UniProtKB/TrEMBL annotation:
SUPFAM superfamilies: ARM repeat (SSF48371). It comes from the Eukaryota. Belongs to the EFR3 family. InterPro entries: ARM-like, ARM-type_fold, EFR3-like_ARM, EFR3_Homologs. PANTHER family: PROTEIN EFR3 HOMOLOG B, PROTEIN EFR3 HOMOLOG CMP44E. This is Protein EFR3 homolog B isoform X5.
Amino acid sequence: MEKLTFYALSAPEKLDRIGAYLSERLIRDVGRHRYGYVCIAMEALDQLLMACHCQSINLFVESFLKMVAKLLESEKPNLQILGTNSFVKFANIEEDTPSYHRSYDFFVSRFSEMCHCSHDDLEIKTKIRMSGIKGLQGVVRKTVNDELQANIWDPQHMDKIVPSLLFNLQHVEEAESRSPSPLQAPEKEKENPAELAERCLRELLGRAAFGNIKNAIKPVLIHLDNHSLWEPKVFAIRCFKIIMYSIQLLSHLDANSRSAATVRAGIVEVLSEAAVIAATGSVGPTVLEMFNTLLRQLRLSIDYALTGSYDGAISLGTKIIKEHEERMFQEAVIKTIGSFASTLPTYQRSEVILFIMSKVPLPSLHHPMETGRTGENRNRLTQIMLLKSLLQVSTGFQCNNMMSALPSNFLDRLLSTALMEDAEIRLFVLEILISFIDRHGNRHKFSTISTLSDISVLKLKVDKCSRQDTVFMKKHSQQLYRHIYLTCKEETNIQKHYEALYGLLALISIELANEEVVVDLIRLVLAVQDVAQVNEENLPVYNRCALYALGAAYLNLISQLTTVPAFCQHIHEVIETRKKEAPYMLPEDVFVERPRLSQNLDGVVIEFLFRQSKISEVLGGSGYNSDRLCLPYIPQLTDEDRLSKRKSIGETISLQVEVESRNSPEKEERVPAEEITYETLKKAIVDSVAVEEQERERRRQVVEKFQKAPFEEIAAHCGARASLLQSKLNQIFEITIRPPPSPSGTITAAYGQPQNHSIPVYEMKFPDLCVY
């Protein structure tokens, strides 16, 4: 062997003849079953191949590959393993000169066939399968980086290589589930085709460029489809943890949009698992494309559940859809949306939040609602599913600037959704707002409504309100208060709604409150108390008791946060009075499994109520704006009510528009309009609100004075007004009867009354300063 190697190195032009001779001998010995000579010939070829790297090695390689192919075609397992080992050694050699005509098609097919070996002997079967995997690994290494070689990324090759690797991964996973005996375990650990197949698959995908990844992943998806591996999803998750994350799984979900719900749920759950380990810079689609695909699948699933078929109409050959399976798929999609959003940075998550909110159907000009019963059900289900998705994305969302977390266009649409009649939708809106506002993890501390005597046990994390938060509240506070006020007046509210309202009020007080916000929140809660007391909405007894209890719990909290002793004392006194005589107005008796309510709430005495005058007095002494505290909170109707289904709100606005149109006919000549700017609109809104509040307060004081003042004081007041009126009338009469005044002076007429008389202008005397 040493002499032969020296001769080949000394005369490299003889290599092709040496290879041809050894190949002829090996083919003859294989045919005659002289396996000892076969091994000697292959060893000689291996050593010559390792030693020689000259330019004429290409012809020798052709003879070598012909011999390897002959061994692989043999039915003897040992010869197949021998040929594979020789090919692996050849694959690790870096050739100096390229080959333009070499083909590896046979080796890809044969090694893939060996990966599917089903020999009766388990040991032989394992060895042949491992040889096949090693051979495929050798083919990939030999061809993947050489542009002149056959393109291993072509679908004809990938459709054989990838399924062969997955077959070994899947087969051994099934074998492991049968719990092998302890004696077999060490041998299985030593030679495990699954580990080798996983390494080979990782290496294959690691060498793939962006343009080739599609051909490598498509066979994975086809394999999972053909073998029904989406429903258990364990193996699919393992595959995609190897693959990481790729665009093809999304397009495959679209391709399977008419598959069974369990299959689609399996694909989506695999996406969810893969998204957790997917880095933000991984190969894949844009972020919004990812969410757009998932939301589209969510809408399709809703349609399938409503129509009962994939075609929109049930016929004899139509596959009937099970509603509970579609619901399972929808929950899987929502979970996946949350999983993927949790890996995104803050700025991308904000984009996703706006994108999802833009898909929520609202009764507006830009988002027409479907009519009919089926259309209403579809709209409602779509709204609920998208709000659930939004809640998943907003959970754990951390943003220091509330202006960025809740921009105007998003907040307007979200609060417009809260005006709908559906109680479940309103609850989702409250929970979404709580998720955005809670930045210090205080949310769970307000999960139950109570009147704690000492809130220090809650261990609240409180920071000073930042400048950005102050700007946010100046811009959007009235919108938030109005939403809370209108939600409190809903008849369909249940305990969860009041708990969410309490949490929202508490978190605003902790996260976004300054002195002005605290004053407005107190006014808001006192207005809610008036809603329960006056009961213009004809609310049920439970709702009225719940509003009383909600006000007590919040005022108890805010009084301890403001640390004003007189304020705390007033709140404490009212709560203690309620505990003794009206426990049905406290959360401890209302928000329980079996509420203890009062059947008669019309005779509530003033001692049971929190008085606005008293609160404004005690807080005014501590530096709070007492004038603003005295004004009752009155929500203003805005244009967002157009998005509501409420007849009262919608009809009011439409009536106003109709009256305005009648009062200003087109025929009438109009005055040129004043230029309208942002400042003029802002001034008009602020002025109108202030004027209306002052007028309402003045009327309230007049009514209160006539109700409570003694008769003598009212009579004196009316007499003073009558005398004032008479004097004004006398002045008017005097002006109309007497002649016009003259600068020359006055004369005294009868009855001692001074009387003016007229003097011609030419007789008038002017001061010297007027003479020129």
